[in-house]
């Protein structure tokens, strides 16, 4: 997908070394075929898949239902190492854990595990870097390194699931319940890999992790053709639109892709998605002091969303070091909420977890030499 208008970003990722093929890149049938092609028993694919997705067992020594002589061959064929932890920071008494990963080619990505009393959410990256160039975003300012593979995306969730299952997160053993594609990258600019990852996450074991589609959120800055393509998938995932401004003049600056697809087009595609799926669209809006938090913009946003199947998620901006952008004043945030509620628009203010551990996407990677 490429932008054609002058001054708008090209969405293709730079070409780099291809990640090794992994079990999570493939359907169960494809896993069986891959093993057969490698001269290994195809029926072992279901056993390997169960170890990976259901038992969360990454050590071949634990594969007691597979002959010892075959374990290393199978691991090399289907479960190569995809990423290595570089740094991990914790907050909220250990229940928020941000990990910086190094991929096989040295690219850096981040994931965040957030454990709440009633759920555990994994925020995952879909690209190393991002090509959308939003000026208030640390990842956007770093530029795009490459797309991630389906398995690299899935492995972030599986790694988080392992730490929970092993009781390494305060609160005792648990499971990942929610996944949000709100880490580094523009998910719909890496469409094929992201949709593949969604299927791995929601398909029941041994095909995948068996999460609920309704507990998966895919975000976008507004790539209209990709939103239309997602609508045609007839999935039940939540669509989140990173809007950040209700008017084209400001959104052209905050979200440069808006110079190609305007606010009206983006919201129109979102309403089509809501109509097809019956799912409420999440409108993401980072409140930025004296930039997009004026009363008239709150009123305009309320008018655009009134009566629609939508919910506004207001995000107090987590500023990046040295940035001119910062969070709105508490009184302006409160007034923004009241204005939206006056229009009958459901609105919540996002929990600002992880602020003390470089919680904004891309901050941890930006600090790594």
Characteristic key phrases:
12 strands; two-stranded antiparallel ribbon; 369 residues; TIM Barrel; alpha/beta; 12 helices
Description:
The chain is an alpha/beta fold and 369 residues long. It contains 12 helices and 12 strands. It is elongated. Helix 5 packs parallel to helix 6 and helix 10 runs parallel beside helix 11. The N terminus is likely disordered.
Summarize the topology.
Blueprint: H1 28-37, H2 44-54, H3 68-78, E1 83-91, E2 96-103, E3 108-115, E4 120-123, E5 127-129, H4 138-142, E6 144-147, H5 150-165, E7 178-181, H6 191-202, E8 216-220, H7 224-233, E9 238-242, H8 248-254, H9 263-277, E10 281-287, H10 295-305, E11 310-316, H11 330-342, E12 347-349, H12 363-367
Parallel strand pairs: 4-7, 7-8, 8-9, 9-10, 10-11, 11-12
Antiparallel strand pairs: 1-2, 2-3, 3-4, 5-6
